[in-house]
Amino acid sequence: MSTKILIAEDNEQIAAALSSLIEKHGYQPLLAHDGIEALQSVIANTPDLLLLDLKLPRLHGVDLLKKLRQSPKTQNLPVVVMSGLYKGDKYVAAAKSLGVEIYLEKPFRAAQLIEALQASLPSKEPAPPVAKPADLTGGATALAPSTTTAMSHPATTFDRHLLRLFTQRFTGLCTLHEGEKTHQLFCLGGIPVALAPGFSYSNLGDYLQAQGALSPEEFNYFTHDGEKRGESLVQLGCLEHPDLLQTHLSYLVNELIAACGRPAMTASETPLPLPQGLQPLAVNVPMILYQGYHRYPKLAATGMPADLGRRYFAPSPTFFRYINFFSLAPAEQQLLHLCDGSRPLSECGEGDTPQALIKTLRMLDMFTVGSAPLQGAAPDNLPVRTFFNAVEEEPETLAEEALESFSDLVDDSDLSLAAELPGAAAAQTAPISTVENPLEKKVRQYASDLEGKNYYELFNLKQGDFSFDRLKERYFAITREFGPDVLMQLGGAEAQKVEEILSTVATAYNTLSDMVKKERYDELLNSERVGLGEKGDDIFQAQVQAQSGKVFLEMEEWDNAEKALQDACNIDSNNGDYLAHLAWAVYRNPSYTNSRAMLDKARQMLNRAISMERTAAAFAFKGWMLFEAGQDNLAESEFGKALRQDARNTLARKGMRTLQEKREQEKKGLFRRMFR
Q1: In the 8-state DSSP scheme, what is residue 16?
Q2: Please, are residues 190 and 168 in contact by the beta-carbon 8 Å criterion?
Q3: How many Å apart are CA 651 and CA 525, to the nearest integer?
Q4: CB 673 within 8 A of CB 663
Q5: Can you list the domains of the chain with their CATH numbers?
Q6: What averages of pLDDT result for each successive group of 10 residues across the chain (676 residues)?
Q7: For the chain, how long is the longest CA-to-CA vector?
Q8: Using an 8 Å Cβ cutoff, are 6 and 74 in contact?
């Protein structure tokens, strides 16, 4: 019987990742998404170990632990605690008093978790690992010795055979039957390392001779005396050893891509054990699939739905596992950047959809695909340093920002000389124009016309005659009419009005283009007695309280803001935006400046709000909290997230400016020390 491990974790993505990791190492994972469910599961079917996140809904992890220790049946149940919220020695000591020997602080590495499980289960031996998708990091898990009986697979194209070997982490010999020809492909952990004979060239010697890199005499030696071994080419002085390795890799990649264009073939697999610690690093399988679909467009088009452009694509957890193994063109990088689940594929790029890329991503299960907007996954605990295919966003240019000033290093006499330069006086005495700008008048009029209109009326639509195509057409017409070129011609109040117009229109568009949000909004509009206990009253009241709270925040009336936003959260407890603003009201309230407990509470509320709803405002709030804690790099990252969602977010823009000013001041201080 396999070892059962109950995972008590309310974050579904983290729970899924933990379950996959645990199953891969031979344990049987069980899931519970809150404290009550975990308690019921332990009582009904006691596991061998409980992997417990302390911050659980319905029943806190600490309370769950206390209940387990009170029962003779579970008082000795091994428990490994994991927490990203409760960190430090005092929590470790408190958990130890409840019989917890191992306390993992998030984020932790997979190896740490497995070591913790093994240490907590000294008398248990995990079952043979279950085959899972290759991690491509070079790591390899030892497989239990298997039989040498070959497994047969029906005829299909090579890309599907390769995908099966890769995702099942197959180790052994795969014999491909192409008519009367056979090709033997040897894999380690799902990664091909050798092929004989090839599909385009029978071996490495053929490949080099076709390129003119081998003479007939050298090729003859390679084939006979050299026994078709690459080392013989180093003996002959044809290739240096590093060049041999690179050439062999190029040959193997070329043959695997060529195989994608061959007719369907059957396969038989003979599994072999993979020695402990062997780390195969040979070919890049995701890129082979990608390049194979590029070279053979008909293969890429096979199985692709006709309505592909109307579907929504959002990253799945697998996306972060494989994305760094691609080397994409800028247009393809931009496409991935826009495929966040908020818009159909047809709106994610210009020109034709790159079928080779989309086919590869679908084959590797890197995207969740649906007919309506989707929520993309996050890398969670995967400690990604950088994304090689990320879109390089140009830094936003703010009109009020000036170039770096070295005025503290300039002599006063230089300033006097500058004032005497030709044109200086004219610049100082130039009259200020008082002619009304027609563009400013147009902006003020449009902003005035928006007042009092519901979301349908903003786009000249009617609720009973709604069309998504007309909504999209009119939304883009408005955004073009008040685009960046208009904003750059304005200043002051008019520029602010343009930002308000675009923000209002974007909110309306996001609501009406999302079927769930649209239904809620329609209920609100159709409620004739909102506020009198009728349908829609709760939603309306929560919106009113939240809007009032946000206004109080702008006025810096912190107590009133906290009260209004708390009321909104009480009515609509699942609204992450309301909770984020409540956290900010608590954090900013001067009454709590010296209360570490309240400030920690504000941070906890904000983290919970972000887990519920990833909004620009929430990221901006978190950025300021990190900045004031002295964590500038993390703060910059959060401000960046906010601006990627809403480039006009005032708080995030201010945060970026403040960070830049701080760094400029640090530079000036350095200059002063240098010139002192």
Answers
A1: H
A2: yes
A3: 31
A4: no
A5: 4-120 (3.40.50.2300), 151-274 (no CATH), 288-370 (no CATH), 434-526 (1.10.287.110)
A6: 85 85 87 89 88 87 85 87 80 82 84 87 50 38 45 89 90 90 90 90 87 84 84 84 80 90 91 69 81 85 82 87 82 84 83 80 88 82 75 44 33 37 39 56 81 82 78 80 63 68 78 70 57 48 76 80 85 87 91 83 89 90 90 88 88 90 70 46
A7: 96
A8: no
Both tokens assigned to 235: 């003996």
For residue 200, what are its two tokens? 């385009």
**Environment class of residue 532 by beta-carbon count within 10 Å: exposed (0-12), middle (13-18) or buried (19+)?**
exposed
* Strand 191-196, strand 181-188: pairing: antiparallel
On the 0-12 / 13-18 / 19+ scale of CB atoms within 10 A, 366 is buried
Prior bond to 484 cis, omega within 30?
no
- Reduce the secondary structure of 330-391 to three states and give it as a string: HHHHHHHHHCCCCCEHHHCCCCCCCHHHHHHHHHCCCEEEECCCCCCCCCCCCCCCCCCCCC
Q: In a 3-state reduction of DSSP, which class is residue 402?
A: coil
Residue 84: is it exposed, middle or buried by C-beta count within 10 angstroms (0-12/13-18/19+)?
Answer: middle
**Is there a contact between 3 and 124 (Cβ–Cβ < 8 Å)?**
yes
